[in-house]
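Task 17 of the worksheet. Students: predict the tertiary structure of the chain below and write it out as structure tokens. Keep your answer in the requested format; marks are given for formatting as well as content.
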Amino acid sequence: MGAKFVQDALQYLGMKGGSKFSTGDYGWCADFVTYVVKEVATALGMSKEEVKDLRNNHLGASPQKLVKKNQEHVIETSDLSAKELSNLIQPCMAFICKGGGQPSQHTGFVAEVYNDGTFLTIEGNNGNMVRQNRRNIKDMYRFVDFSYLFT
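Model answer:
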């Protein structure tokens, strides 16, 4: 499943602005995650009604909503070592970290996990565009595992 999210998100690398992903006048990182999850759901054959239910019940326009709506599938990082997290974190999960200012948060997809405690991301609204970054696992607050939505 992770490969589907990553492949879909990669097609938007370099895209500027969030108008494709968001109609609001706010940060669009969570809208990018929501857009990709909905696009993958549609590609996997979910009906329009199923995708609408997926959006309403499991996705949202902020990192906080992604966490709240998927509470049972959230990995909290505070009590885990970087090595433990490296073993738990998988491509297709969304990461939640501090954003540009307090108390804002930022989200995107895990694309690849490395043994050194870092991971590669694909994220919207990084410098107002879709970009890849390499981030430290221990700098994250939470990870949201969306794979359960497709089992």
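Marker's comment: The beta strands are 74-76, 94-98, 105-113, 118-123, 131-136, 140-144. The first strand starts at residue 74 and ends at 76.
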